[in-house]
Amino acid sequence: MDKAILCERLVRYLRLYTHPVGVKLYKDRSLVPRRARKETRNICQFISQARYQDRISVGYAEFIMCAIGASCLGLIKTPEVFTSGKAAVGRYCKNASVGKKFFENTFKIGDSGKQYDAVLIGSLRRLSVEPDVVVVYGQPVQIMRLIHAHVHDTGEKISADTVAEAAVCSSIAWTHTYKKPAMGIPCRGDRAYGGTQPSEIVFTFPYSELERLVSNLEALGGEDTLPVAPHMDWETPNMGDYAMKKEYLL
Fold first, then answer.
1. For 179-193, what is each residue's pLDDT tens digit?
2. Domain limits at 70?
């Protein structure tokens, strides 16, 4: 099915208020269909521009401010300040030993060295190429429906291992590597620099799964399932002075 149609249905069935985002990693930047602007940005900023402004961006390591995000995507080898745990001391962890474990629990392609030369990030419906990974930000109830769509014909749980650090980049990397959906709690940087709202969580899945997930959302009721209707067939308790009385009806 056409990507634009699938994207439109995904937005409609989940009642998303920002665009789904496509991410593609390149080993050779010369293969990217557009050039990077020579402006320093973070991965979460590119994603925010895509989901809020329908934009497409290209990132090279030398123009990415956030080293942990670049490490997650394998655009650089993970620096020693992260592998040793030192970067987390004071900010998140009480010492480097704890920080080392903290960063070990942040999935990073860069732990195996630099693997990629460029990343293409854009509004899914506008990308001219097939991305590797789709990123969706939403309310917990919207992500719940995506989880239901995944389990509908698999019964498989969604991975949500997280230390809430570089969550979107780590989730993209995990999905890219293992070809499985993932869920994350956006980190402090994503909220400060990427404009992520307090109530949002992030869900990533392989682009190859898009049609299956949309089809399963449709099978589960499509757009009629959100918002979840509260059960109102019950009698309210005594409302004191606000309660209706027989004499008021005379």
1. 999 999 999 999 999
2. 3-227
